[in-house]
Amino acid sequence: MPVTTYLDHGATTPLRDEVAQAMEEARSEPLGNPTGSHRPAQRARRLLEEARDEVAAQLGRSPGEIVFTSGGTESANLAVFGTVLAALECRGSASLLCSAIEHPAVWESSHAVARREAVSLRLLPVDHHGVVDLNALGDALDPGVTLVSVMMANNETGVVQPLAEVVEMVREQNPACVIFTDAVQAAPFMNLAQCTSGADLVAVSAHKVGGPVGIGVLAIRAGVELAAQQLGGGQERERRSGTQNVLGAVGLATALRVAAAERVAVAARAAGLREVLADGLMGAVVDAYRTVPPDVATLPGHLHLCFPGIEREELLVALGERGICASGGSSCASGALEPSRVLIAMEVSAGLARGAIRFTLGRQTTTDEIAYVVGVVPEVVGALRHGG
Question: Rounded to 10 degrees, what is the CA torsion of 264, 298, 317, 284?
Fold first, then answer.
């Protein structure tokens, strides 16, 4: 088998050694249920609250605003359903504004809740680079809007959204509106305490930043009304019932802390390697298309390309056989391939979108790996274009 060349950090990141060590130390003595009164339970509660304090510090929030969840998807669902259902209960109606490029966890929950009576949903368009249209936001912001959802950075293209401008516009035109941002992809490379400070709700997932799978956070600004979607035990200040994942919380807190300490260096290095990869592939593959120009703000580890004349799934399989791990667009439920919804919103042609591929670099990516990918991809694309 070929050596694995992992360029799919946007999907999940390898567990950090520091995280594994912290979790191992946490489980070195018995852990009880944090709601109990005996010694193992007290230890679990102490570890949980220490993790909450650390996560809060990294997000620039108070510990009471941090709600542990099972990951980014649950956090997004809680943000959307929780905000809308609380508004319905209080006012009898609700209205959502959602960018056209949101992650499926936000997109699908927004459409699902909008099927209820007295709930409306409007989609905010993006430009050809995938940046949300602020003029459209301004036009759509009326006093009845309950929730505005604009992600910090797109999971497919890596495009960073103008969240500060979104916040400023919403606060000026509709101060009572709740602002939610999905910061899952941004967490490894951006200072979340700074860039998400204006948002009322912020979603983060551990396994995108070197933490364990199965743990995430929704930061909820004090005073925001949110209807709990998971009931039964009253944990997390009755906002998310269920026995907390103490080891996961320890891992998430550690991952965020370590990532913050090395963020500047890792971001600079990833951006440099990303440009080497982009230049190499654009120069070697005829008609290769860089979906987002290099002068548009993107996460430093993201490179989204389109190779016309091939199907992305065929390309991903062929690269996988050579040990290269990357990802493509989404598929519909029937299994028939469709262009990515994000690329459609950006008005990328269907011919280009069918050959879309996302390379996402991380802290462990090496120059040798980039050189290998630059050597293999043109060969594979050429073979696929000629029916090989």
Answer: -100
Look at the chain and report how many structural domains it folds into: 2
Same-domain pairing of 87 and 156? yes
Q: Judge whether 125 and 101 are in contact, CB under 8 Å.
A: no
What are the pLDDT digits (tens) for 71-115?
Answer: 999 999 999 999 999 999 999 999 999 999 999 999 999 999 999
The three-class DSSP label of residue 203 is strand
Distance CA 198, CA 204 (A): 16
The tokens describing 125, both together, are 């368009």
Q: Residue 44: helix, strand or coil by DSSP?
A: helix
Length of the chain in terms of residues written: 388
Name the residue range of residue 226's domain. 17-257
Residue 108 sits in a domain whose CATH number is 3.40.640.10
Residue 254 CB: number of other CB atoms within 10 A?
25
Q: Which two tokens stand for residue 309?
A: 């004349």
| Amino acid occupying residue 278 | A
Q: Which residue has the tokens 């941004």?
A: 186
Is 332 catalytic? The answer is yes
- The residue annotated as part of the active site, out of 90, 195, 325, 332, is 332
